[in-house]
User: Fold Substrate-binding domain-containing protein from Microbacterium kribbense.
Amino acid sequence: MNTRRATIADVARRAGVAPSTASVVFSGKTPSSAATRQRVLDAAAELGYTGPDPRAASLRLGRSGIVGVVFEEHLGTAFLDPVNTVMMDGLADGVSPLGAGLLLLRDDDNEGRLPTLTSAPLDAAVLVGCSGRLRDSLATVLRRGIPVVVIEGDAGDGVPQIDLDNREAQQQMARHLRSLGHERVATVTLPTDAARLRGFIAAGAEVTVGVTRDRLDGLRDVYPDAVAYAAAASSIDEGLAAGRVLLAGGAARPTAVIAQSDLLAAGVIRAAEEAGLRVPEDLSVTGFDGITVDGLAPYRLTTMAQPAADKGRAAGQAVAAMLGGEAAASFRFTCTFRAGNTTGPA
Amino acid sequence: MNTRRATIADVARRAGVAPSTASVVFSGKTPSSAATRQRVLDAAAELGYTGPDPRAASLRLGRSGIVGVVFEEHLGTAFLDPVNTVMMDGLADGVSPLGAGLLLLRDDDNEGRLPTLTSAPLDAAVLVGCSGRLRDSLATVLRRGIPVVVIEGDAGDGVPQIDLDNREAQQQMARHLRSLGHERVATVTLPTDAARLRGFIAAGAEVTVGVTRDRLDGLRDVYPDAVAYAAAASSIDEGLAAGRVLLAGGAARPTAVIAQSDLLAAGVIRAAEEAGLRVPEDLSVTGFDGITVDGLAPYRLTTMAQPAADKGRAAGQAVAAMLGGEAAASFRFTCTFRAGNTTGPA
DNA sequence: TTGTACGCGTTATCAA
DNA sequence: TTGATAACGCGTACAA
Assistant:
């Protein structure tokens, strides 16, 4: 029982061929005679050799087959909203032609500053929701010279970005409500900055998260004076908390609430039910994303459906292109209005 | 503009030191004089060198800092239930002493059979929910001689497993209902096999998924004749569908429903509401997991809380131990009964 | 504290 | 179709 693992050289020696020949048998890059192949395979079996060591191969090839995905929140938070997991599925699809896997990176300010991001054998990186701390990650990756794509964030420079037409989409939704005759409209937004504080957004307040800002701007294009309340995360419970605040206004309460995500909208609907308001008769509620909100039936949200899986897939393809030496272009996806049963006349 | 990336040798040459010295400066494994360090760092900055290439380092060290996590479902499905994301967070914690990241692997039967699992530079692997197709993954990993830990699955052999006392826990919950006087009890189970078909589970039917089987057995220890209905996934909507079927029975309908997950329980509660039944006055409902079900308030599920994060952390620690050359033992966690407001007297 | 020499395991290139 | 050779970029004994 040898303690050392067999290498391709051992296999080659045992099979009586050159190491390069054995390598060719495993990679299949060059034709080899059936007899040779069999001899090599037999030798490998006898030695318990299961194929080239990926570490050595990746050094030689300059490719590890690993794409890093960096979120700026904890995994638990990031995956709370299905829109992110759907995007991840698309991303997994997008990179699969590369035979690549996805390495989950937490953007904590752990002890070592971004330890894995600097030390992981990445072929490329995808940053999700670039704002705040993620800018450090971006700098790190750019310095390493690794191809990087940013989803839903402003990366500046020549970094390909995969975006949505957030402002136009929210504008469209606001016009829908206007056409229904709504005058008093409030909105529940996604977090406005890294602090993720819950509360009303003052008129001139700065919103550093791009998605949140753009959707808010879209709403204000139509309703300049809409009241805005920021949630601390995208979840039903956060929507519920925000909804309670917004619907407590008595006579001045809004007749419609525009939520910046479907989960938030679901929470607002719960708040309405609590307050004895019927949706959509007494209150119209709109979402954003177009995901399936687990447990929301029989409501079907009126929402702006975003192509989340396509977004991920596009990011994957952009990564693949860059690794192929081509320049990848930024791409902006369009959301589509989807009527449900949660909006009605004022 | 040189096309080739700078290596540590280039940096050393420019700094006028030996490569090994430069290496030491970056790794910090051996003390070096401040002057030398500064010269090396300056040279690195001038050359745009950002530190050792992880690919080369991992070959040299025999470590890649990557732990593979293999699910048997699509990412979107796996992450639908928070219990899994919580577990992932724990796992991320558990492997962080290794400075390792988590590589997400889909266990699809894609064209290439498990391409990434065989070709990724993994230090270790964690299989989640070992049953059906995952057995192939297990064989693959074992053949590669990579340390592997199985969460919630039967791996046989000497593979460390991280489990729950599913049977005892469900038994305990069943006794809780019995002590409340319930006679007609039904259960909504997690998927029973790889096919994930929805429907009643016949008396002698085989249940191949261990978790599902064990919890069902625990229930039958107390209520041998309980009606069982299998859901196709762990979600509120699946629980709702199952609840509709189980509560349609008229006079023979159960007075209590034991769900095998909190999400399923939430769905059953919705079904009860639909049917005009009050929880817990007309129907008691119990869950399993002890997660926070987004949007379920004001209900607080009576449930068996499982230490999901600890499970992940333990798996991470087992992996770390095995990489340290120690043998890792299997571990079985215990669930704890948590009273909520969803159960009451029959 | 620094330098020399070597090997980690593989694969591309080129010649035979 | 096969074989010899030379990197890939780094870390670490060991000697100085």
